[in-house]
Predict the structure of Cytidylate kinase.
Amino acid sequence: MTKNFQIAIDGPASAGKSTIAKILATNLKYVYVDTGAMYRAITLAASRAGLSYEAEEEIIALLPKTVIRFEPGTPGQRVFLNDDEVTEVIRSTEVTNNVSLVSSYAAVREDLVSRQRNIANSQNVIMDGRDIGTTVLPNAQVKIFLVASVSERAQRRYKENLTKGMTTSLADLEKDISVRDYKDSHREISPLVQAKDAILVDTTGQSIEEVVSKITEIIKNNQ
Ligand code: CDP
Ligand code: CDP
């Protein structure tokens, strides 16, 4: 076991991981680490360098010169790529549709996993992603696997997008989420899978408050 406290939250797209993790991090005064934002930032870096997302070797060559930094923001967290704020642009459809490919490259994962472990080494963290409980923090004291039905996840993303003026249809969102679920669960390295010692929390039909309260209870029982 590690000296500091580590909470791992994994699960498929739009299960509520980052929403729940941010609230818990504020309540517990832990550092929140959004690992999906790191994979998204590398995907954006590839695009900005004019690379094809298939150009694995060139994307890998970008890694040593790619600095990803988080800063607290209101609300949530600001993300910087080489000192340029990319908080919004990493959520674009272009990045969303290509991030699963870029994150399937072994050297990309190795590099980001090492950055994530460094952050979690010396402070209390709550980290969300796909492989946190299985690969990044296998000794985390609390591991949650957060799920919800595909249709509910698409509805949640749809409502969120409307507030940002994005108009992708519900059917397209459902399709995009299913494709990403498939890619994330079937890749060779660190696929999305529930860790043996993770607690499954199905959030279908549950409000954010209900989920926060359920996970807070789980954390209390493990402290
Ligand atoms: O927020 P959303 O669920 O849409 O995704 P995200 O957490 O921002 O992650 C974006 C993508 O990055 C995922 O679909 C995965 O392909 C990849 N990812 C990963 O491979 N491993 C992680 N630990 C986190 C994200
Ligand atoms: O990080 P992840 O992709 O797993 O999901 P998210 O970005 O935290 O949540 C996607 C959307 O679902 C957000 O708009 C949340 O407000 C919403 N949500 C919800 O309606 N009910 C929940 N129990 C959890 C999240």
Notes: The radius of gyration is 17 Å. The CA atoms of residues 159 and 165 lie 10 Å apart. Strands lie at 6-10, 31-34, 68-72, 77-81, 84-85, 125-129, 142-147, 199-202.
